[in-house]
Each structure stands twice: as structure tokens, then as C-alpha cells.
Design brief:
Layout (H helix, E strand, L loop, with lengths): L11 E4 L6 H12 L3 E5 L8 E7 L2 E7 L5 E5 L13 E3 L2 E3 L6 E3 L4 E3 L18 E2 L1 E4 L2 E4 L10 H5 L2 H6 L7 E10 L3 H6 L7 H4 L14 E5 L2 E7 L20 E7 L3 E5 L4 E8 L6 E9 L6 H34 L5 E4 L4 H14 L6
Antiparallel strand pairs: 1-20, 2-12, 3-4, 3-6, 4-5, 5-10, 7-8, 8-9, 11-12, 13-19, 14-15, 15-16, 16-17, 17-18, 18-19
């Protein structure tokens, strides 16, 4: 069955310098900071007063659902001495800084605190936490990193992909945890590991390749974003089954690459958000890997089962994808070869590289 896959018109060559250049690294950080960022699931804020904390490219973010049901985002930084004012997730109608007990409401306004006479510039009800643009779209939480930049146009950003993302009913999913990976690989190299399944047969021989086919995928683009569909091995069973009995979601994995640095992996059992950010410099990245399920989680035993699936996926990325990618990064840093080759059977990699070049205003690769 591994004899057909969507093909690009020709091979694509990406300069090794794209993964090494300090100047390009800074421009990419700026690009990401100007792009709407998925930071989690709407269901992480299930009711008024719910809050959760995130880190988005080194920026600490506090998200809160107000009494009016609106999701708001703030820099999780006290206006006094820059301490975080919240941690983890929970429910609160006030956020109290753990350093000097300055208090903020769910709209980020300064409410008060001890020793207020020492700070005549701070007026109760006045400015407090720095607000960030926020949105709730297609079942996901989104933020922008530029204060005062105005409303996030996530619908416009997603374009034709928006209705499809919304069709998954992500807002009903149950969050199941988050894991963090720091790796000695460029952030684009990390994104590339999710951009093709050509490597499954070798890299994931005893893991993903036991359940999913290798070098067989459907590719569709949506502006700068794209979708890949990876068939599972059990898809061959459909050949002997009447079409009216087919349940397609039992037979493939859907990968969405949300430009420029987020990957969504969706199956019948779970949906993963993989947020990948530039790290300290070119050749370093930080990945936030989050999992949720749209299936019922009736008890602790069921939750443990989902957590086991999540650990399998995460450990495979960590110990197989990223471990090998670190060796690729080291080889690129040697300067021995000037470019990487993306095959015709790797259209997701072509699309990602081309979209980033266009957004940065760079000339197309030759």
C-alpha cells in the first residue's frame, strides 16, 4: 500500500544557513511575536473566574475568563517588582502577588495592597497588569504578544482552515496535561519533524510505524498553513468493508501546521497541541506539548489510559525525533554541506519553508 503519496512538482533545496543564522533567528522571533499564537484549549477556562498560565516565547502569560465570559490575557508580571501574580491553573476572582500582596482583578486592574501610601501613582481600579490581545476561536485559546495591538483577527489569519478546525468541537475536549522539551535543535527543525511521515519506517520502526503507514500522506494548503493526513495501518481493512460502515477517523491521523510554529495532531481519541518556539539562539528551541481528548474520561483508570497514550507520543518525539534532529543540527553546524534537500514526497516541508521566506520578505530558495 505504501506506493502512493501526494507529491510536490519538484525537489526543494533549503540552505543550511536558514537553521544557523543569528540574524535570521532574530527576524523569525519577531515574526512569531507578530503572529496569533495558539496557547491551549478553551476548555482550560471552563467557567467565569477560571484562569491558566502559559509561557509564550519567554513571555509569561496569564489567561482568565471574566464574569462576562470573555477570555482576557495579560503579561503574568506584577507592576511593582515583576513577580508572577499567578501560577498553574485554577479559579480566582483576584490575583495576589506572592511578593508584596499587590492585588489585581480578572480584568487586570490594580485593586490595592498593603503600604499603598508608598505608591501614589497606583490608584485602585486603575492600570495594573499589561493586557495582551486574546481570542477564543475554533475551540482554542489565542494570544498576541504585542500589548495594545488591537483585537486578534484569528478568523482572518486561519482563512478557509478555520471552519474545519471548528468542526472538531475542540471546546468540548478534556485537557490531559502538558510536557515541556528543551532541545539543541533549531525551532524550524523541530517543526519539520511533524511535516512528513517518510521517516516513520526507519526512525519510528518500533513505535509510530507499528500503527501508521510510512511515506503515504495527503497534503492540502490553506494560505501559510497546511494539513497532512497520515493513514493508519488498519486502513487496509476498509477494502473488505461496505463504505456505509466506514468510520474514517478510526483510520488516520490529521496533522495541521498552523503558521509558523504550531502543530496540531488529531485522532479519534485525542488532540495534541505542539507549540514550538525559538530558544536562546539559533540551534535551540523549546516545545510545549499538550494533550486533550474528546472522548469521555469517566474515572481515574480512563485518565491513566489517556496519560499512557500521551507519554508514548511524547517519549517518541523526545527520544526518537528530537534525538536524531540534534545530530542533524550538529552536522549542519559543521558547515560540511550547504543545503538540505526536501523530496517531492515531503510537500509540507516545501510549504513551511516557502511561507516563512515570504513572511520575512526573503527571496525564494533556488
Amino acid at each position: 500500500m505504501d506506493k502512493t503519496t501526494d507529491m510536490a512538482p519538484e525537489e526543494f533545496r533549503e540552505p543550511t544557513a536558514s537553521y544557523l543564522s543569528a540574524e535570521r533567528f532574530e527576524r523569525e522571533r519577531d515574526l512569531i511575536s507578530r503572529t496569533p499564537q495558539i496557547v491551549g484549549y478553551s476548555s482550560e477556562l471552563p467557567e467565569p473566574g477560571s484562569y491558566c498560565t502559559k509561557t509564550v516565547m519567554d513571555v509569561p502569560v496569564l489567561l482568565s475568563r471574566g464574569e462576562d465570559g470573555t477570555v482576557r490575557a495579560f503579561q503574568n508580571i506584577c507592576a511593582h517588582r515583576q513577580s508572577p501574580v499567578a501560577s498553574g491553573c485554577g479559579t480566582a476572582r483576584r490575583f495576589v502577588c506572592p511578593f508584596h500582596a499587590w492585588v489585581y482583578d480578572t480584568r487586570g486592574a490594580y485593586v490595592g495592597g498593603p503600604g499603598r501610601e508608598g505608591f501614589p501613582s497606583m490608584t485602585p481600579g486603575g492600570p495594573g497588569l499589561t493586557e495582551l490581545p486574546a481570542a477564543e476561536t475554533a475551540g482554542f485559546l489565542w494570544v498576541g504578544l504585542t500589548p495594545g495591538a488591537g483585537p486578534l483577527d484569528v478568523e482572518g489569519f486561519l482563512g478557509d482552515l478555520g471552519p474545519e478546525l471548528a468542526s472538531w468541537d475542540v471546546h468540548t475536549w478534556t485537557p490531559l496535561g502538558e510536557k515541556v522539551l528543551e532541545a539543541p535543535i533549531d525551532w524550524k527543525l523541530a517543526v519539520d519533524t511533524f511535516g512528513e511521515n517518510y521517516h516513520f519506517a526507519k526512525v519510528h520502526e518500533s513505535t509510530f510505524a507499528t500503527v501508521a503507514k510510512s511515506n503515504c500522506a495527503l497534503f492540502d494548503s490553506y494560505g501559510p498553513h497546511y494539513r497532512l493526513v497520515f493513514p493508519l495501518r488498519n486502513i487496509t481493512l476498509l477494502a473488505d468493508m461496505p463504505e456505509e460502515k466506514w468510520e474514517p477517523l478510526h483510520n488516520f491521523v490529521v496533522i495541521y501546521a498552523i503558521f509558523p510554529n504550531t502543530v496540531l495532531s488529531v485522532t479519534m481519541a485525542n488532540g495534541e497541541v505542539i507549540r514550538i518556539y525559538p530558544g536562546k539562539s539559533a540551534g535551540h528551541s523549546v516545545t510545549y506539548h499538550q494533550n486533550a481528548t474528546g472522548l469521555p474520561v469517566p474515572d481515574d483508570e480512563a485518565k491513566e489510559g489517556f496519560e499512557s497514550i500521551f507519554e508514548f507520543a511524547h517519549s517518541t518525539i523526545r527520544d526518537e525525533d528530537y534525538k536524531l534532529a540534534a545530530a542533524l543540527q550538529k552536522n549542519m553546524e559543521s558547515g560540511a554541506r550547504p543545503e538540505l534537500v526536501f523530496g517531492r514526497n515531503e510537500p509540507g516541508l516545501h510549504h513551511r519553508a516557502t511561507a516563512i521566506r515570504a513572511a520575512l520578505g526573503d527571496a525564494p530558495a533556488q
